[in-house]
Write a structure and sequence with these properties.
6-stranded antiparallel barrel; Thrombin, subunit H
């Protein structure tokens, strides 16, 4: 019987498959395009119907518009020696309607008394240094503006910033004047060791991730209402994570600002009295004395008091050696610098509440301390490391000399340092500071405080030797950032 084979159906199937392979991608592509078109249409419709981003942009632009007229770009005198970065000066902002401008002390330190300030509208005016405080790094200039000045609004100190709040940093990074960057408050109550050492200052800084670079120093850090909550002062870089003055290195996402309460405390006194008086507590403690103490089912953390000045403010309030200070003015004490900073920017005579844990009774109590006036000796005890670092020399007693009245000698001079440049050598005996005789280290650093050496004022050391008998000569220097 003869067999017949039908090829037609198979050919139809093959043709159908081939057509499908050729046509299906195009169909799927058109479907994908249609889906994307619909997605774009829906997104645009959402944007058109909800202007939340536009409102945010308008609000941020309004912050810039409200702050910019208050900003100034500060330029040192032509040819001023010792300015931190060539071609890049610093920033500041109008503090009041009398023409006072605030900035960092390290921006104006050691470069003269007169400056030029440029406003955002292009006006350039002369400015004179009214006063500066190296211990908080705040300075005040008096500006002879040709026209109106527009003071920047300041946030009420009764409403301190909170972690996570959006902030904006203004200044002249790398000379790009009147710039603005955005971030959040990353942390509160920071005391970066590098800043304290470099500036001999009191630190209780705001930490932010807003970009701050050389030239931002002295510019304001503002909140979403365009109110200054602080002053840009320092950055942590990849090379220096301890916190360096904001004139060295580039932004690495961590910057610091002086709280507005500290700025106001210093600026108001410089404007009204020409000098700064600080509160004094009258206790001693180990610099790294923060500890955690178990107390029943909980624990307390704070700074243990190792000594109380007799008849001082703390003693009069009932503080005793061994007490642990856990909170001051509502702020937890997580670092010894935080306590000293809070006290140092409180006025003498102010009454500040403190929470204290007493091991003897295993309980906390609240005490109110009426602050005294900080002695110069307390400031003098803060500056030795800063002087040694910036001068590049160590001053002390020879090993064979003992006692607090031992003569002072230059015991170390660093290569390529300022000390080497001006002619200080190991073995020289220091006998006077700006003509004031000094017989020991305490008197020496007290003289530096009183002569404003930390502000970059020229200081003259009277020295003898070595190898020249009793011949005395004077050597002058000026510290700069």
């Amino acid at each position: 019987m003869r067999r017949f084979v039908a090829y037609g159906p198979a050919i139809v199937v093959l043709i159908t498959c081939a057509v499908s392979l050729l046509v299906a991608p195009a169909i799927f592509l058109r479907l994908a395009d249609a889906h994307t078109t619909a997605q774009i249409s829906l997104a645009r419709q959402t944007i058109d119907e909800d202007d939340v981003l536009e409102r945010i942009d308008r609000a941020v632009s309004a912050v810039a518009d409200s702050v910019r007229p208050s900003l100034v770009h500060i330029t040192p005198p032509a040819g001023a020696r010792g300015f931190p970065i060539s071609g890049v000066s610093g920033a500041g902002w109008v503090y009041d309607d009398q023409g006072h401008v605030v900035t960092n002390a390290h921006v104006v330190r050691g470069v003269g008394e007169r400056f030029a300030v440029e406003f955002a509208d292009g006006r350039v005016a002369g400015a004179t240094l009214l006063g500066a405080d190296p211990y908080t790094d705040v300075a005040v200039l008096t500006v002879n503006a040709n026209g109106a000045v527009f003071p920047l609004r300041r946030a009420p100190t009764s409403y301190p910033p909170r972690q996570g709040e959006r902030v904006f940093a203004f200044g002249s990074p790398f000379g790009f004047k009147f710039s603005m960057s955005e971030g959040i408050v990353s942390a509160l109550g920071r005391a970066p060791s590098g800043v304290s050492t470099a500036l001999a200052g009191y630190t209780n800084y705001l930490q932010t991730d807003a970009a701050v670079n050389p030239g931002n120093s002295g510019g304001p850090l503002v909140n979403v209402r365009g109110e200054a909550i602080g002053m840009n002062v320092a950055i942590a870089t990849g090379r220096d994570t301890t916190g360096a003055p904001a004139e060295s290195g580039d932004s690495a996402g961590i910057s610091f600002a002086i709280p507005i309460a500290a700025v106001e405390f210093v600026a108001d006194q410089i404007i009204s009295k020409g000098e700064v008086a600080r509160g004094y507590l009258g206790v001693s403690f180990y610099p790294f004395g923060i500890e955690r103490i178990d107390s029943g089912d909980s624990f307390v953390r704070g700074l243990r008091v190792t000594g109380v000045v007799e008849d001082g403010p703390a003693a009069s309030a009932g503080l005793r050696t061994g007490d642990v200070i856990t909170e001051v003015l509502g702020q937890p004490i997580t670092d010894s610098e935080i306590l000293t900073a809070i006290v140092s920017v409180s006025a003498p005579g102010a009454q500040i509440p403190m929470v204290v844990y007493s091991p003897e009774i295993d309980a906390t109590r609240t005490v109110a301390v009426t602050l005294g006036v900080m002695p110069d000796l307390v400031l003098a005890q803060r500056i030795p490391n800063a002087v040694a670092s910036q001068l590049g020399a160590q001053i002390g007693s020879r090993r064979r000399d003992v006692g607090s009245d031992a003569p002072l000698y230059i015991t170390r001079v660093d290569t390529n340092s300022l000390a080497e440049e001006v002619g200080l050598t190991v073995g020289m005996r220091v006998t006077a500071v700006n003509g004031e005789p000094v017989e020991n280290l305490q008197e020496f650093y007290l003289a530096l405080v009183r002569e404003n050496t930390m502000l970059g004022r020229r200081t003259t050391l009277s020295v003898e030797g070595p190898g020249r008998g009793d011949e005395s000569r004077d050597i002058s220097f000026r510290l700069s950032p």
